[in-house]
Specification:
- By secondary structure, the chain is of the alpha/beta class.
- It has two domains: 195 residues, nicotinate phosphoribosyltransferase; 178 residues, Alpha-Beta Barrel (TIM Barrel).
- It is built from 14 helices and 18 strands.
- The strands form four sheets. The protein has a seven-stranded antiparallel beta sheet with strand order 13-12-1-5-3-17-18, with helices on one face. A six-stranded parallel beta sheet has the order 7-6-11-10-9-8. Strands 15-14-16 form a three-stranded antiparallel beta sheet, with no helix packed on it.
- The protein is elongated and about 75 Å long.
- The two termini are 42 Å apart.
């Protein structure tokens, strides 16, 4: 068996922390089931902003229950605190506590990990600009969550994903090149590239991996000479232990191809990439990036769910801000600015708009879910307006 929880087990609350089940048991025996407001905030992100993702799975587990949910639109770029230092609620639930108590753990899991992946992908894409960024990281993570990883990475800004099921989730074709395994089985780069060109659909880009047996430069030249103008690009994936200076290697490969008449061949780099190295590779003429572990295994965003109101009265644990709230935001001068207000107060300031939208009303889903491409476009439009990185 695989060590995974299926959908029925998640919906049954079997992936929750046991103390919520014990809390349920006590409250039921004591006849207590109060109306509460619970909000989702994060105290700290090591980046200036995050990208809120994971909402469809929250909807799936909570729909049909007599509760109300408001949240940021999926793909919204958010900060941890507003301009006055008040923690920003990205989502809140209102209803009888026992109607959603046991779902706190999975709901947090849905948004914490997906938002972390989308945030990392957005940072990489912002730095890469018009260069392509492909999500290659599923091999580093449990295969059961491949669809979530690739969906979150794509929404965050990646231009494509490598897994079959991830690509199906975003309604795109999967992307990939040639593995070392093919080159080894075929006895070398020339045979592998020629066979790929002969046997694989012509609509699949011809991109050769060029570091199996020889120096990247010489394998790149052999790949280009093998199929000529059909070769779209070469991918440099040398492990760090044998790599040397990958920026110089990329620059050298580009030069050597150009002087031999293969200027059309694009340079792609993968293996251990993150935000720090990408600008340097762009300066060296790299055309695209395959980013794996740093996106797929991105730091989760540590959202917490806290009760902030009981039976209409503000009440929260220490360190949290009591009361139901409204959230307003605007993009201004290269930054996204937020303002948190009490729910019963009016707030009118030029440029600000209310950020939390209704998701579920009394169990009925009222949120219009968008396609991954639409959400990705929303993220990219915000990134264009933001200078912070």
């Amino acid at each position: 068996m695989f060590f995974i929880a299926n959908e029925e087990e998640i919906k049954a609350g079997l992936t929750t922390d046991v103390y919520f089940i014990r809390t349920e048991e006590i409250l039921k025996k004591e006849g207590i089931n109060k109306n509460v407001v619970a909000e989702f905030t994060v105290q700290y992100i090591k980046y200036p902003w995050g990208v809120f993702v994971g909402l469809p799975e929250v909807i799936e587990i909570l729909k049909g229950k007599p509760i109300n949910i408001w949240a940021l639109k999926e793909g919204t770029v958010f900060k941890t605190r507003d301009r006055t230092g008040i923690p920003i609620p990205v989502m809140y639930i209102e209803g009888k506590y026992l109607d959603f108590a046991k779902y706190e753990t999975p709901v947090l899991g849905f948004i914490c990990e997906a938002s972390g992946i989308a945030t990392k992908a957005a940072r990489v894409k912002k730095l890469a600009g018009d260069k392509s960024v492909l999500s290659f990281g599923i091999r580093r993570m449990h295969p059961a969550i491949s669809p979530m990883i690739d969906r979150s990475a794509y929404i965050g800004g990646c231009d494509g994903v490598s897994s079959l099921i991830g690509a199906r989730t975003i309604n795109k074709n999967p992307t990939g090149t040639i593995p070392h395994a093919l080159i080894i089985n075929m006895g070398g780069i020339e045979n592998a590239v020629k066979a790929f060109d002969k046997d694989i659909d012509e609509n699949v880009p011809r991109i050769a991996l060029v570091d199996t047996f020889e120096d990247e430069k010489f394998e790149s030249i052999k790949a280009a000479e093998a199929i000529g103008q059909k070769l779209l690009g070469v991918r440099l994936d040398t492990p760090a232990s044998r790599r040397g200076n990958i920026v110089d290697i990329a620059r050298e490969v580009k030069w050597e191809l150009k002087i031999r008449g293969f200027e059309h061949v694009k340079i792609f780099v993968s293996g251990g990439l993150d935000e720090e190295i990408i600008p340097k590779l762009i300066e060296a003429g790299v055309d695209g990036f395959g980013v794996g572990t740093s996106i797929a295994n991105a730091d989760t965003i540590d959202f917490a769910m806290d009760i902030v109101e009981i039976e209409g009265k503000p009440l929260a644990k220490r360190g949290k801000y009591s009361g139901k709230k409204k959230l307003f935001s605007k993009l201004d001068n290269g930054s996204v600015i937020f303002k948190v207000e009490e729910s019963n107060k009016e707030f009118k300031e030029a440029g600000f708009k209310e950020s939390l939208v209704p998701i579920i009303k009394n169990g009925e889903v009222v949120y219009k879910e968008e396609t991954p491409e639409e959400i990705r476009n929303f993220v990219l439009s915000q990134l264009k307006e933001i200078d912070e990185i």
